[in-house]
Amino acid sequence: MQSPLTINAAQYSEKGVKPSNEDACGIRMPDEPLLTTKGVAVAIADGVSSSEAGREASEACIKGFLSDYYSTAESWTVKTSGQKVLGALNRWLYGQGQSRLGSAQGMLTTFSAIIIKSTTAHLLHVGDSRIWRLRDGEFQCLTRDHQTWGGEEKCFLNRAMGADVSVEVDYRSLPVEVDDLFLLTTDGVHEYVNDKILRELCESHRTEPERGTRAIVTRALENGSHDNVTCQLFVVTALPNQDEAEFYQHLTELPFPPALESGQILDGYKVLRELKASSHSQLYLALDTESNQKVVLKTPSVNYEDDAHYIDGFLHEEWAGKRINSPHVLKIIEPQRRRRFLYYVCEYIDGQTLEQWINDNPQADINSVRPLIEQIVAGVRAFHRQEMIHQDLKPGNIMIDSHGVVKIIDFGSTKIAGIQEINAPIIRGELLGTQDYAAPEYFQGYPGTVQSDLYSIAVIAYEMLTGQLPYGGPLSARSLQKVSYHSSSHINPDIPVWIDGALEKAVQINPTHRYEVMSEFITDLSTPNPKLIKERQPLLERNPIAFWRGLSIILFIINLILIYLIKKG
């Protein structure tokens, strides 16, 4: 059985010689599933004494971060979650500071946090509090003080939470090992206790962090600290590592269901008929016998009963679908009864696949294509907001219901940024998609990005308008240097040059040459972009003088060659 992430932690804070304590600190060790998906968080803050509300600022920062971080999407990376939360907290601190009449300094505080997720430590840092690590006798400061020297051995804080409407947060990540010791301190500690003594105190209290924090604070006060003194100390006692056998055992807790036939009842779902079967999965139309609602059961293929990578992907397909809420993405339904087999339940869509639509509407009109592409983009952006890359957008994975609503129905290849941070014996997020629609960077070994999904959408749009692929066929690693874009306007003369220009830009081989955001692509499919029109106009139309000058030079050269040949003859 996999051992969970555990730490032995303590914290201690004293006001010292000051009238009040403007430091704040906090530790949160959540229960599962947040322990796995979000990790353990340890944070410290030091309210800037020159501000009028340093104590309020530091406490708001710690409480707000430890609450809001665990409310962010589980699919987000630690970096995304942390920076978004700190950005919002910073704006709140800045706004509160500005609203205080007569306040020149506002609500300012330093902030440093370390989040242990899986086997990685993620550091977020603003100001001059510090994070240290003790490993194998080596004591190292992992953060950089944001200070500016002002002469006469004085330094000033040049970066703090609440100082401006935006804040730059230092971020770094590093691998964690069992027995790693981490120490967080405010400047009231580390300015009065040198690195050597800190290391000795940490090492001597490794198994008793509570006594260690008190010893460090006491030493700082004994050395004449005239500031608040706060420190946190924790030791990583276990990491959630699994060997392949443990990992597979966890995945196979639920057995694969048997082949289902009409009339069978599985966990309260009555099978009506098989909708689709492939080498990877089966889809069944079923009736929930309690709610009388039609649903779809997706079951895994017995061909992969011993394939841990496949089972992990199947489970994460459901996991991802539950976290996306969009009218243009298939809705995953939470079962109300205990499952005895591995499958998941989703809404039933009465309609046809986009693949069937393309067959029924060869070289469709742009006015028919545009609203469908806009809906596909809306669905894909719901993935991107959750830091997910779909990676397998194709007409067969898109449905159009009887009301014309487009829905993305398959998430089997989706790469989830937050899940990628969780250590596992298998490699997650590998491309499982379809060659015809996969972005070129996948064939070069690069990870998928927003631009990769954009490429797939543009290929789909191109096929809807022309019935063909933009490079004449599927790409491969060998063909990337040789292929050239086939103008959609040449295949279908009804396509305006500005539409063709938008398509060509969206399917560029180099992802950096594509649109940065999908909204730009949609705009250029709806409104002529003068730049794209100018680039694609014949030289005679966009620059007549240059055309005739060039033609004159060519004719002049031809005349010289003819004269030379006549004289030579």
Give a structural overview.
Helices cover 36% and strands 21% of the residues. With 569 residues, it is of the alpha+beta class. The strands form 6 sheets. Strands 13-14-15-16-18-17 form a 6-stranded antiparallel sheet, with helices on one face. Strands 1-12-11-6-7 form a 5-stranded antiparallel sheet. Strand 8 and strand 9 form a beta hairpin.
Quickly list its features.
4 domains, 5-stranded antiparallel sheet, globular, 569 residues, alpha+beta, 23 strands, Transferase(Phosphotransferase), domain 1, 36% helix, Phosphatase 2c, domain 1, Phosphorylase Kinase, domain 1, single chain, 6-stranded antiparallel sheet
How many E strands? 23
Q: Name the CATH homologous superfamily of the largest domain.
A: PPM-type phosphatase domain
Radius of gyration using CA atoms only:
31 Å
CATH architectural arrangement of the largest domain: 4-Layer Sandwich
Mean pLDDT across all residues, rounded?
A: 90
Number of helices: 19
CATH level 1 class label of the largest domain? Alpha Beta
**Strand content range:** 15-25%
Spans where pLDDT lies below 50 across 5 or more residues: 539-543
Structural class: alpha+beta
Helix content: 25-40%
Q: What spatial order of strands do you see in the largest sheet? A: 13-14-15-16-18-17
First-residue to last-residue Cα separation: 94 Å
Largest sheet: 6 strands, antiparallel
Basic shape: globular
Determine the CATH topology of the largest domain: Phosphatase 2c, domain 1
